[in-house]
Write a structure and sequence with these properties.
Distance between the termini: 49 Å
Largest sheet: 4 strands, antiparallel
Structural class: mainly beta
Catalytic activity: dUTP + H2O = dUMP + diphosphate + H(+)
Function: This enzyme is involved in nucleotide metabolism: it produces dUMP, the immediate precursor of thymidine nucleotides and it decreases the intracellular concentration of dUTP so that uracil cannot be incorporated into DNA.
Family: Belongs to the dUTPase family.
CATH topology of one domain: Deoxyuridine 5'-Triphosphate Nucleotidohydrolase, Chain A
InterPro entries: dUTPase (IPR008181), dUTPase-like (IPR029054), dUTPase-like_sf (IPR036157), dUTPase_trimeric (IPR033704)
Strand content: 25-35%
Shape: globular
Radius of gyration: 19 Å
Cofactor: Mg(2+)
Bound molecules: deoxyuridine-5'-triphosphate, magnesium ion
Length: 144
């Protein structure tokens, strides 16, 4: 499928790095270097605006390399881009490391996965069907 996109940045369009990659890397669109101090969070612009078809969303996910090497995560992970959003895609990065992390224009700061989603309506009832799990959760199945 193709998706309409406006690129106001000077970076190339997000692209799949390998043939069967799920995510396209997003690049920072910034005038000056951004520094993230330990535990600091900042909203990083991408200069990208997209028009997702109805029934699709885009997820903004962290890159494992940045997470592993530099402790960089996404606060609202995964970020959700709604199909009716026409604003700029932004990435809410956080620095979980003990060192300052520098972001320069064009750096690949996150990845975006486009996915289908359902739009549901509720069937409000008094009782839900029974299952083996029942109400157990949050470690319920852990070995004792
Ligand atoms: O990482 C993100 C998350 C969201 N958005 C944009 C697209 C999304 O469609 C919109 C709203 O996001 P969300 O619903 O997560 O935020 P909210 O706090 O519920 O804001 P709103 O009241 O505008 O829905 O913000 C981004 O650019 N990056
Ligand atoms: Mg919302």
């Amino acid at each position: 499928m193709t998706i309409r996109i406006i690129n106001k940045s000077k970076n190339s369009l997000p692209a799949y790095e390998t043939a069967h990659a799920a995510g396209m890397d997003l690049r920072a669109d910034i005038e000056e270097q951004v520094q993230l101090k330990p535990m600091e969070r900042k909203l990083i612009p991408t200069g990208l605006f997209i028009e997702l078809p109805e029934g699709f969303e885009a997820q903004i996910r962290s890159r494992s390399g940045l997470a592993f090497k530099h402790g960089i995560g996404i606060v609202n992970s995964p970020g959700t881009i709604d199909a009716d959003y026409r604003g700029e895609i932004k990435v809410l990065l956080i620095n979980f490391s003990t060192e300052v992390f520098e972001i320069n224009n064009g750096d690949r700061i996150a990845q975006m996965v486009v996915a289908r989603h359902e739009t549901v309506s509720w069937n409000e009832v008094e009782v839900l069907n029974e299952t083996t799990r029942g109400e157990g959760g949050f470690g319920h199945t852990a070995v004792k």
